[in-house]
Amino acid sequence: MMRIVLLGPPGSGKGTQASALARRRGIAHIASGDILRGNVKEGTELGRRAAPYMERGELVPDELILDMMAERLAEPDAAEGYALDGFPRTVAQAEALDSRLLEMRQRLEAVIYLEVPETELLRRLSGRRICPNCNAIYQLATMAPKREGICDACGAELIQRKDEQPEVVRTRLQGYARETEPLLDYYRRTRLLHEVDGTIGVRSVLAEIDRIVKESAAEAAGKREA
């Protein structure tokens, strides 16, 4: 059983790593951003309330996130373990998550923080393009589509998300620094935090995370047996 959190600023690669780790470990990849965007697209009550914050690049208020994530963690696939991507984003959310896990008789095994300089984050996010049809992701500088503006997989026209336009990206990074970085101190105190250089390449980052996960799992198993 493996339950981990991936932390890092927007563009640090949390989604890519959480997805790869979930496939490798056979656990659920739970991305709060994907859930929120799905609600916005479907026009749910949560989506309508969250949309204005997301369009401005601001953090969605805790009260809108917590109920949504509690429901998601209770779904059957999460029972086998999960990689949380984009949640928690504040200390209040982390405390609420701890309380929820305690009620469920669960605990986190590790918290991974991906470190990436702001200049690199701006480059990554401002150059990202997404297929609205099949959700394929491209990076203009490093992984551009074969035809400019067209998805390789399905031929749809690529888009830039509103929250990845340069001026909105800066707001998102400021919000991250203000609200999310205190999580590092929170998880340091619990001795769950592991910091990983997010610029060493996707495969190298995944290998480092996988090493941490294995060591954390072995340590947790040793505590249970003691």
The gist of it:
By secondary structure, the chain is α/β, with parallel strands linked by helices. 51% of the residues lie in helices and 14% in strands. The chain has helices at residues 14-25, 32-42, 45-56, 62-73, 91-103, 118-126, 166-180, 182-189, 202-225; strands at 2-7, 28-31, 81-85, 110-115, 128-130, 137-139, 193-197.
CATH first level of the largest domain: Alpha Beta
**Number of helical elements:** 9
The third-level CATH topology of the largest domain is: Rossmann fold
Output the helix-strand order.
Answer: EHEHHHEHEHEEHHEH
Helix and strand content put the structural class at: alpha/beta
What is the 3D shape?
A: globular
Extract low-pLDDT stretches: none
Mean pLDDT: 89
Kindly report the name of the CATH homologous superfamily of the largest domain: P-loop containing nucleotide triphosphate hydrolases
> What is the end-to-end distance?
18 Å
The gyration radius over C-alpha positions equals: 17 Å
Total strand segments: 7
Give the biggest sheet.
5 strands, parallel
Keywords for this entry:
Rossmann fold; 14% strand; alpha/beta; globular
Helix/strand layout:
Blueprint: E1 2-7, H1 14-25, E2 28-31, H2 32-42, H3 45-56, H4 62-73, E3 81-85, H5 91-103, E4 110-115, H6 118-126, E5 128-130, E6 137-139, H7 166-180, H8 182-189, E7 193-197, H9 202-225
Parallel strand pairs: 1-3, 1-4, 2-3, 4-7
Antiparallel strand pairs: 5-6
